[in-house]
Amino acid sequence: MGLVATQSFKNIISTYIGFGIGAINTLFLYTKFLSDSYYGLVGFMLSLAYVIMPLMSFGMHNTLVKFYSSFKTRTSINGFLTLVLIMPLFLIVPLSFFLLLGYDTIGGFLAHKNGIIKDYLWHTIFIAIALAYFEIFFAWAKVQMQTVFGNFMKEVFHRVGTMLLLFMLFFEVLNVQQFMIGLVCVYVVRTLIMKIYAFNLKPPILTWKLPPQFNRILKYSLLIIVAGSIATILLDVDKVMLGYYIEIEQIAYYNVAIFIATVIAVPQRSMHQILMPLSAKYLNDKDFEALGDLYKRSSINLTIVGGLIFLLIVLNINELYKIIPSEFSVGLWVVFMISFVKLFDNALGSNNSILFNSDYYRMVLVLGVVLVVLMVVLNMFFIPWLGINGAGVATFLAVIIYNSIKLVFVYSKFKLFPFSLKTLKIGGFLILFVLGFYFWDFNFSPIINIVLKSVLVVVLYVFLIYKFDFSEDLTSIANHYLRRS
């Protein structure tokens, strides 16, 4: 876990910096500098871009990670990397042409409830293409076991760019239409910078010869498009469907609630960057003992760290909603539901890394397609009935079912299980903290309440985790810094 711990720690820092900047943007700047309609539009546009991104990338970012370590000669590696760069164009070009021909029809369908959406479809497409190639170049760096710079670009760069655009909008340097174009430019520039970094690590040598295993690579890529789409749809289809069923302002309220809960996913997202190539390597080498150890360690570490963030959010959410515009508080129950989902994601550790890099991904895709259909149906039922809370219920149910099936599937095929008695004890601690602190606050202003309660919870939680030695890795890190002090 040395390489994992080192890069994960650096990735967590950059990810939290990004989320800190994102929190300022999401909770304060967007809500003050942009109308609710345009804020909702930004949420819809980015969600739709993420939904179609796996299609635009042809699944090559996952294919690169899975197969790179299986090539041993320079010629085969260069041929494979050339294929990775070219294949996305076989979908990007026809899909863009299809949108050009059917713009009015597609725009009219998506703008069923909110006409403003129709004017920004090309913005969405360009962002989706930029996202696709960014992930490819990030994967290019990952297989060289270098994730820190890419994670910084993924989590920090676009949020800083967005913040600058929001201030330029506020000071009337830009109008709202120019702001939307600027948003596209931020994602494009981020991709270009990532490309330069990736090519500096491993310069591409274009080789117009199909690599060995081409048929296997193509089959995996086609299926991983579905897999990537499933994972993204489970995260973002709710916002897209909200734009179809209810007023676009509601997406802004939902987007804030989702952002708050998604902070819990930061450790998992950070560690995932290095878990993917390591899991692929262990699977290619058939080193299942190392794979199982990675699975258990990642699960317990992510449960501990994610559990602390879960507590800080749930125990302070009522005070947090007091310091942002009151209309956003309608997302309170969404925060609760999605927070639990994100904590469950953390507890699964390297589960996704095992599945996406194993030979069993085909069956998982079948189950995933069924669950996407289920989520769409649930959204169709719950959103008209409960509004944004309905979208939260649909996401909660679909992701819990999906994660549970993946957990059982990995156990049935690899006889690997991430949980232990320690996991159960941590869960018990979390329940006691929620029962003990949720209904209690200091009698001060919301900000002071949040700070004081957070300090108290962090100190007590860290003390208990260290005292009971739940994680060898975290205890080792703590002892290292205690000895230095």
UniProtKB/TrEMBL annotation:
<feature type="transmembrane region" description="Helical">
    <location>
        <begin position="12"/>
        <end position="31"/>
    </location>
</feature>
<dbReference type="InterPro" id="IPR050833">
    <property type="entry name" value="Poly_Biosynth_Transport"/>
</dbReference>
<dbReference type="Pfam" id="PF01943">
    <property type="entry name" value="Polysacc_synt"/>
</dbReference>
<feature type="transmembrane region" description="Helical">
    <location>
        <begin position="423"/>
        <end position="440"/>
    </location>
</feature>
<feature type="transmembrane region" description="Helical">
    <location>
        <begin position="391"/>
        <end position="411"/>
    </location>
</feature>
<keyword id="KW-1003">Cell membrane</keyword>
<feature type="transmembrane region" description="Helical">
    <location>
        <begin position="180"/>
        <end position="199"/>
    </location>
</feature>
<feature type="transmembrane region" description="Helical">
    <location>
        <begin position="120"/>
        <end position="140"/>
    </location>
</feature>
<protein>
    <submittedName>
        <fullName>Lipopolysaccharide biosynthesis protein</fullName>
    </submittedName>
</protein>
<dbReference type="InterPro" id="IPR002797">
    <property type="entry name" value="Polysacc_synth"/>
</dbReference>
<feature type="transmembrane region" description="Helical">
    <location>
        <begin position="156"/>
        <end position="174"/>
    </location>
</feature>
<feature type="transmembrane region" description="Helical">
    <location>
        <begin position="446"/>
        <end position="466"/>
    </location>
</feature>
<keyword id="KW-1133">Transmembrane helix</keyword>
<dbReference type="GO" id="GO:0005886">
    <property type="term" value="C:plasma membrane"/>
</dbReference>
<feature type="transmembrane region" description="Helical">
    <location>
        <begin position="330"/>
        <end position="348"/>
    </location>
</feature>
<feature type="transmembrane region" description="Helical">
    <location>
        <begin position="251"/>
        <end position="267"/>
    </location>
</feature>
<feature type="transmembrane region" description="Helical">
    <location>
        <begin position="37"/>
        <end position="58"/>
    </location>
</feature>
<keyword id="KW-0812">Transmembrane</keyword>
<keyword id="KW-0472">Membrane</keyword>
<feature type="transmembrane region" description="Helical">
    <location>
        <begin position="220"/>
        <end position="245"/>
    </location>
</feature>
<feature type="transmembrane region" description="Helical">
    <location>
        <begin position="300"/>
        <end position="318"/>
    </location>
</feature>
<feature type="transmembrane region" description="Helical">
    <location>
        <begin position="360"/>
        <end position="385"/>
    </location>
</feature>
<feature type="transmembrane region" description="Helical">
    <location>
        <begin position="79"/>
        <end position="100"/>
    </location>
</feature>
